[in-house]
Design a protein that fits this description.
The structure holds 2 protein chains of 2 kinds. Chain A is of the alpha+beta class. Helix content of chain A is about 35%, strand content about 25%. Chain A starts with a strand and ends in a 5-residue tail after the last strand. Classes of the chains: A alpha+beta, B alpha/beta. The interface between A and B is medium-sized, with 23 and 23 residues.
């Protein structure tokens, strides 16, 4: 049975931290490996910072909606901000030689690197991510 | 006494010969303000204290996000500009993936442990 947890938080990095802790507890309760938990936490950190800083521009009146569910097979999350959105294809490739030394722009790349699926929707203010659980050894 | 909040120490710096060996106090390198202060402390080593060889030991670090990577790149460039060198060591396997995915392992010098790192200058 899939039970989704839905949270709405203000554009506050401290609140984002609480969401991360809640999700980490849920993953630990489902006995996800440390490796998977690290991957999900990292992708979550990047996605929430993107939503709060770049999406909502830290506007305290704007909120971020987080819906996630954890099953024994996979973790799914949808993060929605109230920003104007963006086109992920417009983000310069941070691994291109000419961009390697740029100090920012790696969040999206890390989300894609650590998660099984990452997809932006609508005007780019909604991101869904999934991580298929690795086998425990 | 100019700052509003008391600054807590975020780095432990030990001199081994002419190499500044830096350990991170925090297990998690997160939050913009925190990363900003870590960056300021690292840049001070080069800009004010004139250090030219810096070895960052990540042995204590369990988690870091992309925001910290920018500071490492800036430190790397600052040292390159003065013919110095930045070496990283003892990075946990999961965090090493952060460097590999972003291909920063191609521009930063990374060794598995501190001893190898000290010999990497």
């Amino acid at each position: 049975m899939r039970v989704a947890t839905e949270l709405t938080i203000p554009s506050d990095l401290g609140e984002a931290r609480r969401v991360q802790e809640l999700i980490e507890e849920a993953l630990q309760a489902s006995a996800y490996t440390e490796h998977d938990i690290f991957a999900i936490k990292l992708a979550l950190e990047e996605a929430l910072i993107n939503a709060i800083k770049h999406g909502n521009q830290m506007d305290p009146d704007k909120r971020v909606l987080v819906v996630f569910h954890v099953t024994s097979e996979r973790f799914d999350i949808r993060i929605t901000d109230e920003g104007v959105g963006f086109n992920p294809e417009d983000v310069p490739d941070p691994t291109a030689i000419e961009n390697l030394e740029r100090p920012c722009g790696r969040g999206l790349l890390l989300m894609r690197g650590f998660m099984t699926e990452v997809e932006y929707h609508g005007r780019g203010n909604v991101v869904t991510m999934a991580k298929v659980r690795e086998a425990s050894t | 006494m100019a700052s509003q909040a008391p600054r807590r120490r975020r780095l432990e710096v030990e001199d081994i010969g002419d190499i500044a060996v830096v350990n991170f106090v925090d297990k998690k390198i997160l939050d913009e303000q925190n990363i900003q202060m870590i960056g300021d402390d690292l840049f001070r080593l080069v800009d004010e204290l004139g250090r030219r060889k810096v070895l960052l030991n990540f042995g204590n670090v369990e988690f870091m996000s992309s925001a910290a990577l920018g500071k490492l790149i800036t430190l790397h460039r600052k040292l390159q500009a003065v013919q110095g060198k930045l070496v990283l060591c003892k990075i946990a396997k999961d965090i090493l993936d952060v460097f590999k995915i972003t291909k920063l392992d191609k521009i930063l010098t990374i060794y598995p442990d501190e001893q190898a790192g000290l010999q990497g200058f």
